[in-house]
Amino acid sequence: xxxxxxxxxxxxxxxxxxxxxxxxxxxxxxxxxxxxxxxxxxxxxxxxxxxxxxxxxxxxxxxxxxxxxxxxxxxxxxxxxxxxxxxxxxxxxxxxxxxxxxxxxxxxxxxxxxxxxxxxxxxxxxxxxxxxxxxxxxxxxxxxxxxxxxxxxxxxxxxxxxxxxxxxxxxxxxxxxxxxxxxxxxxxxxxxxxxxxxxxxxxxxxxxxxxxxxxxxxxxxxxxxxxxxxxxxxxxxxxxxxxxxxxxxxxxxxxxxxxxxxxxxxxxxxxxxxxxxxxxxxxxxxxxxxxxxxxxxxxxxxxxxxxxxxxxxxxxxxxxxxxxxxxxxxxxxxxxxxxxxxxxxxxxxxxxxxxxxxxxxxxxxxxxxxxxxxxxxxxxxxxxxxxxxxxxxxxxxxxxxxxxxxxxxxxxxxxx
Length: 416
Description:
49% of the residues lie in helices and 15% in strands. It has helices at residues 20-31, 45-53, 68-78, 85-89, 93-104, 123-132, 146-156, 160-183, 192-201, 220-223, 245-265, 280-283, 301-306, 322-329, 358-370, 372-389, 392-415; strands at 6-11, 35-42, 60-65, 114-118, 138-143, 186-189, 211-213, 235-239, 270-274, 291-295, 309-312, 333-336, 353-354. Helix 7 runs antiparallel to helix 8 and helix 11 (245-265) crosses helix 15. It is globular.
């Protein structure tokens, strides 16, 4: 009988249905027989509730409360240093101490075959483990290349965020990610663009670690539309966490540049901006009676199921746009920009419609609104695409193979 693989999974925020990557990877890994101990941080009762819900998929959940002020103090303390604020924001010595205490007993009572650390915000936990327990295999899921995202934000964002990133964070983050891609035993990213961006940051003369592309998935069963669902004939949906700077830029671009062109042709088209924590500039868009800004919703699926078209006019970003996968899994046709295609295997014009200028984007949306047959074909092909390429079960299987490979290579290095 094969020995059960035991993994310490460090996530600097509590996995849930919004933080889909860690949530679904942990859930699927557990179903595939891997024993997961989750180490995570939260700051409120909702985080604690979500952490407790993860106990159904995990052998154990090590939850540490971290108030916002603690994270802000971490950032304040890092300002005089060369550390990026992202790398210290979620640092908590108590949580790290729990993991280190368990690893200290590895020789007498082995607990973990591998430690998996997610995001730049979690990287410091991995660095700490490497400095104290060099024999423990370490996988870092960078998810996206954050400095690549920041570089785009500094070039294209007209708001305060872009300026702050350009002045304060960009060079720090580039230096940190360049070193991190060399420090772990294996590195994961969601797209080839992010992989190349990370590898380009590696210091000259240093050997980067193996970097694998592990795509994001979508919960196909969860997003499957009911048979009796009726789509609106004139509704565009844009979804996402609305406090995220790239989503703010997209929503503003959609309203200011694309929607006026649509309204010139069809004055009754409605836009729904769906997602939690919209800033004032997004809330103010609802002054137009044709625009709805929902804020937090209990369930995003009815908005996706009921929409005629999902619009994803990516201005800048990194990795995979989960909003595209969720819309496809809901059977809703998608119009997006070519920027998103590098992270996907879609066939433009068949699985999604692609447009890069505001004029072209408006034309493609109107085309879907006015042609039910085309809209149905794009929606059906999009659903078939995510079933083929973005099933979490298959993605977790790929990750399991990466774990095994990393453990074997670490043992071989130790034997030399």
